[in-house]
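Sequence in, structure out.
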Amino acid sequence: MARRRSGFPEYASVAEKKQKARRQLEKYQATHPGAKPVTIQGTKIASSFWGKAWCKHLKYYADYDNRIPRGRAYLKNGFVFDLFIQKGAIHGVVYGSGDKLYDVSIHMDPIEDQRLIEQIGGHIENLEELAQGKFPKSLEKEFLTEENGLFPRINEIQLNCTCPDSAKMCKHISAILYAVGARLDAEPLLLFELRDIDTSALIKKSVEEKMNSLLENANSTKSNRVIDDDSVLDEFDLE
């Protein structure tokens, strides 16, 4: 159980923190039956292509590197009681010190669909491919680049938390950002919804590009065959 050292705040082990968080989560879920907590099994926050890519991108928020590790610990300890992702917004509830709950809101600027669609061209054939990250390595530069990729730059997001911390990115916001990476393991296409990108448009564009390429090849092959047929007629002096 938690112990208080003379002159120091109460100390609790990681196991004790997790156990206490589980009890508090049960109370929260009793009054919020639609809650979607994020729990981590093992040591890795994410294992899928998109989940790992999201977590890796957080390193670009270097101005907040002292907050990022604390948020990661909050997530691993089971402190993210709720997470909801929708177009352009992330909402979460984080269990904090003093058994208090803090509401986190993160808003993101949308990406212009047409730009990304044009960059991707005809490389993706179906949603399963897109969800699993099974596409040419060259596309990773389009998706993952710090400057104009799918992931938001720090100036493209607005952060808010109800905690008293005056920092722009507190540990509760950091915990929610990492929780998004974990959620993308199960629902990777939420990332595209978050950035207001129509995945069906991406696939449609790819299919159109491929069909046009096939038609061009077919026409080219047909032309060559016509020439060959004419040559045969000439050879045998046939009309």
